[in-house]
Design brief:
Layout: E1 5-6, H1 11-15, H2 17-22, E2 26-27, E3 29-34, E4 40-43, E5 46-53, E6 58-65, E7 68-71, E8 84-87, E9 93-102, E10 111-119, E11 124-127, E12 138-144, E13 147-153, E14 166-172, E15 180-181, E16 190-196, E17 199-204, E18 207-212, E19 219-223, E20 230-231, E21 234-239, E22 243-248, E23 251-252, E24 263-268, E25 274-277, E26 283-289, E27 295-299, E28 322-327, E29 337-344, E30 353-357, E31 362-373, E32 376-382, E33 387-394, E34 409-411, E35 417-421, E36 428-435, E37 440-441, E38 445-450, E39 452-458, E40 461-467, E41 474-481, E42 483-491, E43 498-502, E44 507-513, E45 526-527, E46 531-533
Parallel strand pairs: 1-25, 2-29, 30-38
Antiparallel strand pairs: 3-28, 4-5, 5-6, 6-7, 8-9, 9-10, 10-11, 12-13, 13-14, 14-15, 16-17, 17-18, 18-19, 20-23, 21-22, 22-24, 24-25, 26-27, 27-28, 29-31, 31-32, 31-35, 33-34, 33-36, 36-37, 36-38, 39-40, 40-43, 41-42, 41-44, 44-45, 44-46
Length: about 525
């Protein structure tokens, strides 16, 4: 089945363009900070997620109700809870998840997993023996009234292969009949389940499948190719009576329309029409939507490098953690939304490498909140009078190393702009800017500090300057003869700040100084503009 795609705002906003433009922008709200990425769920005014404790290395089940967040009074877990929220047979809100005897590793999935249910009102947990097999592993349980859906790992996949084959199951809790397997589809691992009534959705990283509790062949709602071109998985399904809501993240460039749909997704269950809304921020992937239409999502910090894929553990920063954010309103609404604060810079947008002159090193950027409507960025709201701190360390961005003590500080101006005059840096260093009160940081940038070199010609004489001073060093003089060739090496004089020579023939010349860490912290490189020696 082909997938119809659509971008932009709902038709209502086109009809009422003036009203949409005049509507005030509501601000997305940070609900909690997350030390690790985590599944999230929402229903009945409650939101659930896994709160990681770095000291113990374990996760607690966190519940937010009435604006208050508290850990559920149940044992912690070595892995994040695959939690879902829904109504039980009496309409009370319950959380479903699995507990496993053996935690997952980088090479193996968790083992010995059974389904557990936590009743939010009674604050009690118990194992759902009706759906927990003594010989198979259950994952991703979801409940709607008297019906529970989940997946079981096919035991045949454990014999001589590491492939994960999940089979969807459904069980009516009030019936004595055992859990019933549904259409398994292709052999793959599940990353999320959703249920409402008899409608069940199973999501793998590359497939979104619509199933029925009554059985029959599953229907593919969306797919994503894998392999060359990148990786862009689906995750975090949520069902309403008419549509499925989920996200898709990562990067994939293939030229195929289905591979270009990233951000928040909505799939109409009847028509299969897929609507995509760009997140316009670094989306970790998890999203929750409750029965009233409220949205929550997990925002990740800025990726540390241009080539960073956003793979875990990208939530581990103690100065810029992931955040659980409530959208206001839904990303699919025609209303304007104000996104959480973002520190742009240092350096050009989207770049993790910055060249600057070592004689006057200055970092610049801006602190703003982006205003969006659907896919479009419609404005930015500056944040003034916010204190910022620079973090600096030597070495390459690819080399993990601690930052030195907090560097210089500054305050944003009325337009949210900021600048730092840095102490004279080493030839290669790494910098980031932090807003301590907001608990956000800019992306890391690798700074290559260079000498400012001048070169001028007067007759056959060439002369120039170097800043900062590079005492005891020599500079190469190059002439362009089809390519640049070094024709002389001249010692720097006047304390390492000047040089001169007489050219042996006309041509275009430049001065080149190579950086070398062996000389010390003032061993900058650099290159002058061209100077022409006439006949």
């Amino acid at each position: 089945m082909s997938i119809a795609t659509r971008y932009g705002l709902p038709a209502l906003c086109t009809v009422l363009a003036a009203a949409c433009a005049a509507a005030p922008a509501a601000a997305d709200t940070v609900v909690a900070e997350l030390a690790r990425d985590t599944p999230i769920a929402a229903y009945g005014g409650a939101v659930a997620w896994s709160a990681f404790d770095p000291a113990s290395g374990r996760y607690a089940l966190a519940i937010r109700q009435g604006g208050e967040v508290a850990p559920a009074p149940i044992p912690t877990a070595a892995d994040a809870f695959d939690v879902s929220l829904g109504p039980d047979a009496r309409g009370r809100v319950v959380a479903l998840y699995t507990r496993c005897r053996t935690a997952s590793t980088a090479m193996e999935p968790a083992r010995g997993c059974d389904v557990y249910r936590y009743a939010l009102r009674e604050r009690r947990e118990h194992r759902l023996s009706a759906v927990s097999s003594p010989s198979q592993d259950e994952r991703w349980p979801v409940q709607w009234r008297d019906r529970v859906a989940f997946v079981r790992r096919d035991p045949r996949s454990r014999r001589g292969t590491r492939r994960i084959c999940d089979v969807p199951y459904v069980k009516t809790l009030s019936s004595p009949r055992p859990s019933r397997g549904l259409d398994r589809g292709l052999c793959s691992g599940t990353v999320g389940m959703a249920i409402r009534g008899t409608t069940i959705v199973q999501v793998t990283s590359t497939r979104v499948r619509l199933l029925s509790a009554r059985g029959g062949v599953g229907r593919r709602l969306a797919y994503a190719a894998s392999g060359e071109g990148g990786y862009s998985p689906f995750v975090s399904p949520n069902l309403s009576s008419r549509a499925l809501w989920l996200t898709r993240t990562g990067e994939r460039e293939t030229g195929q329309p289905q591979d270009d749909l990233r951000g928040f997704l909505r799939i109409d269950l009847r028509s299969g029409l897929l609507t995509a809304v760009r997140a316009n921020l670094n989306l970790a992937g998890r999203v929750a939507r409750d029965e009233r239409g409220a949205f929550w999502y997990v925002q990740a910090p800025e990726p540390p490098r241009d080539d960073d894929t956003g793979e875990p553990p990208f939530c581990v920063s103690d100065v810029d953690p992931c955040r659980l954010v409530r959208a206001s309103p839904s990303p699919f609404s025609a209303r304007r939304r104000v996104l959480p604060a973002r520190l742009s810079g240092p350096g050009p947008a989207g770049r993790s490498h910055l060249n600057l002159f070592a004689a006057d090193p200055v970092l610049t950027g801006q602190l703003t909140r982006t205003i969006v409507r659907g896919n479009a960025i419609v404005g930015r709201r500056p944040l003034a009078n916010v204190r910022l701190v620079a973090r600096l360390r030597t070495g390459s961005i690819l080399e993990p190393a601690p930052f030195t003590a907090p560097g210089p500080t500054t305050t944003t101006d009325a337009s949210g702009r900021w600048s730092f005059a840095l102490p004279q840096p080493p030839p290669v260093s790494v910098a980031s800017v932090v807003a301590p009160r907001l608990r956000i940081a800019s992306r890391l940038v690798e700074i290559e500090a260079r000498s400012r070199i001048t070169l001028s010609a007067s007759g056959r004489s060439l002369s120039g300057t170097v800043a900062p001073a590079q005492p005891g060093r020599s500079i190469d003089i190059q002439r362009h003869d089809r390519e640049w060739v070094t024709v002389a090496t001249v010692a720097l004089v006047a304390g390492g700040t000047a040089f001169s020579l007489v050219a042996d023939r006309p041509g275009d010349y430049r001065a080149q100084l190579y950086s070398t860490l062996a000389v010390g912290p003032l061993s900058y490189g650099g290159q002058s503009d061209e100077a022409t020696v006439g006949p």
